[in-house]
Amino acid sequence: MTLNRTPVHVNDAVAKLMERVTELGTETVSYKESYGRVLAKDLTATSDVPLFTKSAMDGFAIHSQSSQGASGDNRVPFKVVEEVPAGSSSDYVLKENEAFRIMTGAEIPESADTVVMFEQTKETEDGFTIRRAFTPGENIAQKGEECKVGDIIVEKGTVINPGTVATLATFGYSEVEVFKQPAVGVLSTGTELLEVEDELERGKIRNSNTPMVMSQLKRMGIEGKHYKLETDDFDTLYTRIKAMLDEVDVIITTGGVSVGDYDLLPKIYDELGAEVLFNKVAMRPGSVTTVSILNDKLLFGLSGNPSACYSGFELFARPALNLMQSAALPFAPLIDAVLDEDHSKANPFSRFIRAELFFKEGKIYARPSGFNKSNAVTSIARSNGVIVLPGGTRGFVKGDAVKVMMTDVTTGADNFGVE
Ligand SMILES: Nc1nc2c(c(=O)[nH]1)N[C@H]1C(S)=C(S)[C@@H](COP(=O)(O)OP(=O)(O)OC[C@H]3O[C@@H](n4cnc5c(N)ncnc54)[C@H](O)[C@@H]3O)O[C@H]1N2
Ligand code: MOO
Ligand SMILES: [Mg+2]
């Protein structure tokens, strides 16, 4: 195995990876299971919304003509002839100065054209009086004012959000066509690793990467497949990964990807005959992040160091998994923020710093969320974004403008955008 690797710019690495993503096709799911999935067809309105002209307030439906001339000194009386609660309607034809008692959401009978709110009336024995004239359409939601049958409401490629689910329900789509989600297997490697439940032993640490990556998948709406820890033994690891290739579309491993004696992933990719897309990225942390491909299946070799592992997932796995689902906006958005703390280190390579974003006086600020090294784990816990410092820059000082990757949001962007 060669120990010399050629670093590629993170943009080029991402581009190279995205080029090789295979989209997975579509399937039909219940609207109840659709949240977070990517819409495979434009969602079109099957009816007007509102479906019928309805009252927007609780009160009385009248014909506006009967209210003409009303004033504080000349209150106009109305007689209530019928009640129209939501869910019903009436074909009764109002005569002059007659009114329906009507509730929010009820269909406006054809002989009425405006609604007087309860608060705008004074009660009488058989009805009410009003003190001003009403114009047609007051307190009424018109049929089709929001959208018309056939309108495209949400476009193909959009991630289904709670509002999309409400829209599916509104139009009676009990099922919806979505893009298939990749089956993703997660495997951590390392003889030094213990399970979460285990007692600590000398020289050993608990495996935090598998649960972290499983949660990063979950944040994207993907239920990953958790594989049990493996020691750094070539045969067991090779056999395990070969078996995983039959079970999942994507394999995410953590650890064993650098140049150490027990870093076996490079040798495994070689033995499998996988094509290595890149194995060194000009970035910190996560420079050893390796992505390979075998029969259109992507193998993400994330670094074992937790912060590097985290960044490797967000930068590479996340957009690729989104694109496999044909998401129109697969990348995490980058926003402008004000750096809230000096960062004196120079940045020969692109630097990704787990950060706390906060909002003050209408501005977004970002500060590193703690100990900032590749092996850090606790700073990830306090982060809700990642500060992106371009390669070839000197230190930054408090108050400088920086870009921040919004890792915690579900809204996407159409490009990677890192300089
Ligand atoms: N001679 C060189 N050595 C190293 C280089 C290099 O370029 N030349 N790169 C360094 C960098 S940068 C990184 S990052 C690490 C990457 O190492 P690996 O991806 O091979 O990961 P491991 O060696 O397996 O582990 C590294 C570190 O992380 C801990 N770890 C591993 N798995 C987990 C886990 N599931 N949960 C928590 N912590 C984990 C492990 O104990 C090690 O401390 O290589 C440098 N070396
Ligand atoms: O890959 Mo290492 O995380 O650059 O420190
Ligand atoms: Mg190693």
TrEMBL record:
Matching Pfam families: MoCF_biosynth (PF00994), MoeA_C (PF03454), MoeA_N (PF03453)
Question: What Gene3D superfamilies does its record include?
Answer: MoaB/Mog-like domain (3.40.980.10), MoeA, C-terminal, domain IV (2.40.340.10), Molybdopterin biosynthesis moea protein, domain 2 (3.90.105.10), Molybdopterin biosynthesis moea protein, domain 3 (2.170.190.11)
Q: What class of enzyme is it?
A: transferase
- What is the protein name given in its UniProt record? Molybdopterin molybdenumtransferase
- Which Enzyme Commission numbers does its entry carry? 2.10.1.1
InterPro entries associated with the record: MoaB/Mog-like_dom_sf, MoaB/Mog_dom, MoeA-like, MoeA_C_domain_IV, MoeA_C_domain_IV_sf, MoeA_linker/N, MoeA_linker/N_sf
Name the species this protein comes from.
Jeotgalicoccus nanhaiensis
The record ties this protein, via SUPFAM superfamilies, to:
MoeA C-terminal domain-like, MoeA N-terminal region -like, Molybdenum cofactor biosynthesis proteins
**Cofactor(s) required, per the database record:** Mg(2+)
- List each copy of the MoaB/Mog domain by range: 185-323
Q: Which UniProt keywords apply?
A: Magnesium, Metal-binding, Molybdenum, Molybdenum cofactor biosynthesis, Transferase
Any signal peptide, and if so, which residues? Answer: none
Biological role: Catalyzes the insertion of molybdate into adenylated molybdopterin with the concomitant release of AMP.
According to its UniProt record, which protein family does this protein belong to? Belongs to the MoeA family.
Q: Which reaction does it catalyse?
A: adenylyl-molybdopterin + molybdate = Mo-molybdopterin + AMP + H(+)
